[in-house]
Amino acid sequence: MSAENEIQEERNNEEQYRNWKQNIPFMYEICINHQNNWPSLTVCWLNELEIDQNDNEIHRLIVATQTNNQEQDYIKLLKVAIPKKLDEQLDNTLLNNIWKTQAVGKVQEELQIPVEVEINRVRQQPNNQFILAAQAGDGEVGIYDLSKQSKVFALKGQEKEGYGLSWNLTNSGQLLSASYDHNIYHWDSNTGQLIKQYNFHSAEVEDVCWHPQDPNIFISCSDDKTFAICDIRTNQGVTIKQEAHSQEVNCAQFNNFQSNIFATGSNDAQVKMFDMNKPEEDIHTFSNHEDAIYSLQWSPHQRNLLASGSVDTKIVVWDYYKIGNEIKAEDEKDGPSELLFYHGGHRSKVNDLSWNVNHKHLFASVEQEKNILQIWKIQQQLWEEDENDEYIQSLV
């Protein structure tokens, strides 16, 4: 791309961002823009909720600094107060603090844990609110205890860095990590021991995800363009390996409610949905992104909703109930019928996104270049549930 084209693209992006800011009151119930000192490669809502004396919800989340060795790196615990109910007197026209009361809507740092190397990904253990797993840039997988504000285990054996992390929902303390050394590692975080190492991908393993109901099944995806469905009770682990995309596959996640359904995101800018029982062909391809997809998460509240984050700066929320719905000719430019919403608040690559378990449709997302954390919730009328899912049921 020529310098002139780059300048024009930057101008177009800035114009789109200004338009987005102007439309915040019409699109969002909540929109908070928090400036960090450094970019974060990860964001993770913690599965906890408090109610303060003013009847506000107190939510906590994790980010981690990426200082490129210019300063000490940290895992940071942040908190934000959100009113249980919004009323008409609240000022939702300001981006940085949408409420008149300073204590509400303000992101505050509660603690920070120093780390030796910058952190690629952090995920909370589902059975213990204080325990975190973290993928570091040198390949170490660390186990951190928020109550002790320190690392309690260093899981050794992974030869290169990675991003994928997944806690087993049934077997407490069992953890999977995906590595750029082409391997998947199955750990017992209670003892710090490696249970097993899997090697069935021919390139970097980007992501891994335990099955939400069967503690013996997981999926993985790789730069070799494939996903794999794995059963840890077999000798080799892998039971199905399938080419899924035309380019590298960066993320793979099971649906929380329909556990035979999973989705993948790729450098080909597409999200695909598969049935684990019939994995040879995708059920549907979601197309609207313009660049590689690195973040993917199903809703913890509705089985039909999926969010994807991309290098193109957008986060798209998809509704598979709306696949095949007719759209008006004047609306075709806005994307396919299953595109429920796209969040245009970021101006660089979306590094990670997180869907809050305890507040319906509350998101957190982080980007690469602007040191921005955004906390946002789309207007309620967009979340009207469509129970007419005969189309998708006919496919799965």
UniProtKB/TrEMBL annotation:
Q: Does the keyword section mention Repeat?
A: yes
> What does the entry list under GO cellular component?
nucleus
The keyword Signal is assigned to this record: no
GO BP terms: namely: chromatin remodeling; regulation of DNA-templated transcription
**Every Histone-binding protein RBBP4-like N-terminal domain range:** 15-84
**One Gene Ontology MF term:** histone binding
Note the Pfam families from the entry: CAF1C_H4-bd (PF12265), WD40 (PF00400)
WD repeat feature ranges: 242-277, 286-319
Q: Which UniProt keywords apply?
A: Chromatin regulator, Repeat, WD repeat
Organism domain of life: Eukaryota
Protein known as: Histone-binding protein RBBP4-like N-terminal domain-containing protein
Species of provenance: Paramecium tetraurelia
